[in-house]
Amino acid sequence: MWRIGVGVLGSLVLAGGIVAIPYPGPGWAIVFVGLAILASEFAWAKTVLRFAKGKYDAWTAWLGRQNLLVKVLVLAATAAIVVATLWLLNAFWLVAGWVGLREWTWLQSPILG
Asked: Where are the domains of the chain?
């Protein structure tokens, strides 16, 4: 039962971290915590954690060596992902209702509209 509980908890934390990666905040930290929880009981998770930390460190080192234009482009791509997912999840339409802007129908998600 303990192993199943660790597996469920670790998987939930990992999934939440993956969802949070493009958003401001500790997305990658949550991913690593989820993997660490899983690694406490599963050998495969320890391997994945080591691999993921290495790739994350390599990515941040690479980005740190880039010029300002590349850094701005990465920031713009991240912002575009955040805006697109918020729009698709109908967050803008929800807020539009709070502030009385329901006539702005372009804020409504084409998926959840």
From this structure: 1-65, 67-113
